[in-house]
Structure formats: structure tokens, C-alpha cells
């Protein structure tokens, strides 16, 4: 167990004599150590000494018969040479660092702490950003309708709304039929009072009107400014004041600043329908671009921190 191909019996005895002489002060032992044709490092001396001690203890008393005190001493003699070499190498690199490297390392550690602290917030912003790129944003929440009671309530609401819409349609049809009857009465009377005018002439005029009405093409609608609205609000409003901005919060101010830098006025000079639509699209595009730049800056900062950590581990 004491045999080692790299160490002879004489050199091992010489090492133990040096250890007794200098009371296990290995830096001094390494400085005074001289053996022909052998260059030993401090870790080599420690590894040979502690390995020999463990072997001698195990020869004198097997591990199964050792007392707790002896077993504790036996475990203390377990010397990891590779780990000690790595520790000394890291200590030397730490000792040789410049003040600038210390400042940079401190900055990286501070930035790493900030990133770890805001990691959850960054993930939330990233998920929101990906949703903005891939899917339209939703304004409502489906949480109230996830349970059975919520679904039943939703069904009742839909049924009640459909019943109300049917009632409105029936009332409107009844009013329309009454008005048509009232309008048809004087017409028929006039047709009786005025001879020479029959139903065939009226049908002919109606067909002529239908022939004259035609549907405009998309180019003609854009040329004449024809637009269709689902619902119009009451009152008079300027189109320039109805420009909707889908960018909210702090990003809105950044979008306005970016448009100002591009030379685009916050209020359109000729707010036509197409110009307002293009302006809203431009606002949304600039908002997405600013969010992308913000996320890119964060990702680049994370990459720099991780790269610095990797260099510290490898170095």
C-alpha cells in the first residue's frame, strides 16, 4: 500500500525527515526540498505525505475497527491534489488582477444581481411582447367563465340577448308594414284618380332606377372618399381628433419622440381616411420596434453577463 512508482523508499524517508524537521510547514519543506533528478511541487509533497499516513493508519488498524476519533483523523488525511492545484491557480489569478478587472467584475456581479431580481418581470414582458407579435391583444378576461356556473351564466346572457334582438326585429317589421300600407293607400288613390297611369309604368320606372344604381369599385371608393361605418357617434367631430393610438403608457411618449425625430408632425395636415389609417399603422409599427429594441438590449446585456461568467469559470 505504501508503494508508489513515482516515489522510492529513500525519497519517501527523506520527505518524512523533512516533515519532522520543519514541523509539517510545507512551504518551508518545499523550499528546502532537494532530491537528485526530481522536481517536486508543493502539492506533490502533500499528496505523498498524506497518502502514506493514510496507508500506515489502515495497516495498523483496519477501517472497520477504527474508533470515531481515529476515523475522523483518517478522513482528515484525505488530500485532493487536483483540487488543491486548481485552488492555488485561482488564487494566483485573483492576486494578479488589476484594479480595472476588479471594477469590471464588481459591475458584472451587480448587473447579475439586478437581472436575477428582475428575472420574473423580464419573462412577463417577453411573453407579452411575443403575444403582441403573434396574436391580437384581448381586452376581456375569460376567468369568470371557466367554471360551470360561469358557463351557465354566459348561456343565459346569450339567450336573453338573442330574444331581445328577435323582439326588436319583429317590432321593426310591424312598423314597416304599417308604414308601407299607409303609403300604398294614397298611391293607389292617385292611380285611380289619374287615368292613363297604370302599374306597368311604375314597374318600368323601378327597373330603370335599379339599372342606374351600381356598386362602386374599391378604386372608386378611394377616389371619391366613400367609407362605411358600423356605428356613428352623435355630434360633429374632426377626423384629426379621432386618431386612435394603440400605444399606451410610457411607450406612447417614446413613439411621439421617434415620430418627431423622423420629421412627422403629431397632427396631420390633411387627415383623410387613408392618411389616418396609415398614421395609426405607423404608430403601431414604431411601438413594436421600440419594444423590440428594449428586449434586444436586455438580451444582449444578459448575454454579456453570461459570457463574463463563463470566462471567469474557464479562466
Automatic annotation (TrEMBL):
Biased composition regions of type Polar residues, renumbered to the chain: 182-191
Q: Which GO terms describe its cellular component?
A: NuA4 histone acetyltransferase complex; Swr1 complex
Alphabetically, which GO biological process terms does the record hold?
Answer: chromatin remodeling; DNA repair; negative regulation of transcription by RNA polymerase II
Q: Does the keyword section mention Transcription regulation?
A: yes
GO molecular function terms attached to this record: transcription corepressor activity
Q: Which intervals carry biased composition (Basic and acidic residues)?
A: 201-210
Q: Coiled coil where?
A: none
Q: Which residues form the DAMP1 SANT/Myb-like domain?
A: 1-57
Where in or outside the cell is it found? Answer: Nucleus
Write the record's keywords in alphabetical order, separated by commas: Chromatin regulator, Nucleus, Transcription, Transcription regulation
Q: Where is this region: Disordered?
A: 160-210
Query: Would you indicate the residue range of the signal peptide?
Result: none
Family assignment? Belongs to the SWC4 family.
Q: What is this protein called?
A: SWR1-complex protein 4
Q: What is the lineage of its organism?
A: Eukaryota, Fungi, Dikarya, Ascomycota, Pezizomycotina
Amino acid at each position: 500500500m505504501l508503494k508508489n512508482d513515482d516515489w522510492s523508499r529513500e525519497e519517501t524517508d527523506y520527505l518524512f525527515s523533512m516533515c519532522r524537521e520543519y514541523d509539517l510547514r510545507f512551504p518551508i519543506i518545499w523550499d528546502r526540498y532537494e532530491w537528485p533528478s526530481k522536481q517536486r511541487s508543493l502539492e506533490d509533497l502533500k499528496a505523498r505525505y498524506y497518502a502514506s499516513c493514510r496507508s500506515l493508519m489502515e495497516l495498523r488498524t483496519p477501517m472497520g475497527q477504527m474508533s470515531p476519533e481515529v476515523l475522523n483523523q483518517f478522513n482528515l488525511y484525505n488530500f485532493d491534489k487536483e483540487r488543491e492545484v486548481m485552488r492555488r491557480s485561482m488564487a494566483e489569478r485573483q492576486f494578479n488582477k488589476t484594479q480595472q478587472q476588479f471594477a469590471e467584475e464588481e459591475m458584472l456581479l451587480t448587473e447579475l444581481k439586478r437581472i436575477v431580481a428582475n428575472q420574473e418581470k423580464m419573462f412577463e414582458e417577453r411573453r407579452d411582447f411575443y403575444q403582441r407579435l403573434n396574436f391580437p391583444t384581448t381586452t376581456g378576461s375569460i376567468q369568470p367563465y371557466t367554471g360551470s356556473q360561469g358557463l351557465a351564466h354566459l348561456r343565459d346572457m346569450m339567450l336573453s340577448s338573442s330574444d331581445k334582438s328577435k323582439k326588436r326585429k319583429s317590432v321593426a317589421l310591424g312598423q314597416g308594414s304599417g308604414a308601407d300600407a299607409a303609403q300604398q293607400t294614397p298611391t293607389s288613390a292617385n292611380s285611380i284618380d289619374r287615368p292613363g297611369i297604370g302599374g306597368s309604368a311604375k314597374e318600368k320606372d323601378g327597373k330603370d332606377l335599379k339599372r342606374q344604381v351600381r356598386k362602386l369599385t374599391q378604386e372608386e371608393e378611394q377616389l371619391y372618399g366613400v367609407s362605411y361605418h358600423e356605428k356613428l357617434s352623435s355630434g360633429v367631430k374632426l377626423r384629426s381628433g379621432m386618431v386612435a393610438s394603440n400605444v399606451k403608457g410610457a411607450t406612447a411618449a417614446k413613439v411621439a419622440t421617434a415620430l418627431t425625430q423622423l420629421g412627422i408632425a403629431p397632427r396631420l395636415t390633411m387627415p383623410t381616411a387613408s392618411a389616418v389609417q396609415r398614421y395609426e399603422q405607423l404608430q403601431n409599427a414604431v411601438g413594436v420596434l421600440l419594444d423590440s429594441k428594449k428586449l434586444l438590449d436586455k438580451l444582449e446585456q444578459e448575454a454579456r453577463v453570461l459570457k463574463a461568467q463563463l470566462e471567469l469559470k474557464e479562466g
